[in-house]
Amino acid sequence: MKHQLTISRSALIAAVSMMTFLSGCATGLDMSSLSFRNRSHDDELASTDDIKGPLERILPIGAEGSSRGSRGGYAFSERNPEYQRAMKLHDEGEFSKAESAFKKLAKANKDNALHEDSMFMLAECQFQQKRYPQAQDSYDELLNAYPSTRHTTQATQRLFQIGRYWLDFEEIVTPNEIQQVDFEQPGKQHALSTTEETAQKKSQRPLSQRYALVPNLGDRSRPYFDTEGRAIEALRSVWLKDPTGPLADDALMMTGSYYLRQGDYVEADRFFTLIRDEYPDSPHFRNAYVFGSHAKLVSYQGPEYDGQQLLAARDLKESTLRIFNDFPERNMVKEELRMIYEEEAHKEWERALFWEKKRNSKAVQIQCREILRRYPTSEAADKARQKLAELGEVVQSPKQEFSLPSIPKPSIPRPFSQDRIEEAKPIEKESTSPFGPSEPQWEASPNSESETKSGGSWLPWKWRQEPKALPEENQNSEKLVPNFESAPESEEDEFIRQLL
Question: The domain containing residue 375 runs over which residues?
Answer without folding.
Answer: 343-408
